[in-house]
Write a structure and sequence with these properties.
- There is one protein chain.
- The protein is an alpha/beta fold.
- It is about 45% helix and about 20% strand.
- It has a three-stranded parallel β-sheet. Strands 4-5 form a two-stranded parallel sheet.
- Helix 2 links the parallel strand 1 and strand 2.
- Helix 1 (about 1-10) packs parallel to helix 2 (about 30-45) and helix 4 (about 105-115) packs across helix 5.
- The longest helix has 17 residues, at about 30-45.
- The protein starts with a helix and ends with a strand.
């Protein structure tokens, strides 16, 4: 409901909404664990005519980072995404990644894509290991010149 509300508020012309873009990263161990979320993301994509929401799904559970199965899944997913503009696995426009997210690289790319933004709000909810990793990425990037990342999180 939060995702739907954010997209809805971004479309109201009279409302001064402080966000210009939302990057939503859904990190899950297996594809089966995020299947319940695909319907919600699909609904958001269908009403998000301004492409306000940029969704990335990370499936983290693979035996080895570069085993043959993972490599083939990655190649097929990337090719299908380029050709069809959708994920082979979910049918969503959201990009599916295999492996854990490199939060520092992701945040660097967000910073470079939005050079005029001075402060980014980063919100996360997850296990302490993940939120600590993201917090460390924000801290490291805040030591560099450029926009700052303010991380707010909940652990479960």
């Amino acid at each position: 409901s939060i995702l739907k509300d954010i997209v809805h508020k971004s479309k109201i012309a009279d409302l001064r909404f402080p966000c210009k873009k939302v990057y939503f990263l859904w990190v899950t161990r297996t594809q089966k664990q995020f299947e319940w979320m695909t319907d919600i993301i699909r609904e958001v994509e269908n009403v998000d005519s301004n492409q306000f929401m940029d969704t990335h799904i990370f499936v983290t559970q693979f035996k080895e980072k570069f085993d043959l199965r993972t490599t083939m899944l990655y190649i097929c997913e990337r090719h299908f995404q380029k050709v069809a503009g959708k994920s082979l696995f979910t049918g969503l426009s959201a990009v599916t990644h295999f492996g854990r997210p490199n939060f520092q690289d992701f945040l660097k790319s967000v910073r470079s894509e939005h050079p005029n933004v001075r402060t980014f709000g980063v919100f996360s909810c997850g296990p302490p290991n993940m939120t600590n990793n993201l917090d460390g990425a924000c801290t490291n990037l805040n030591k560099q010149e450029g926009a700052t990342f303010n991380h707010h999180f909940e652990n479960f």
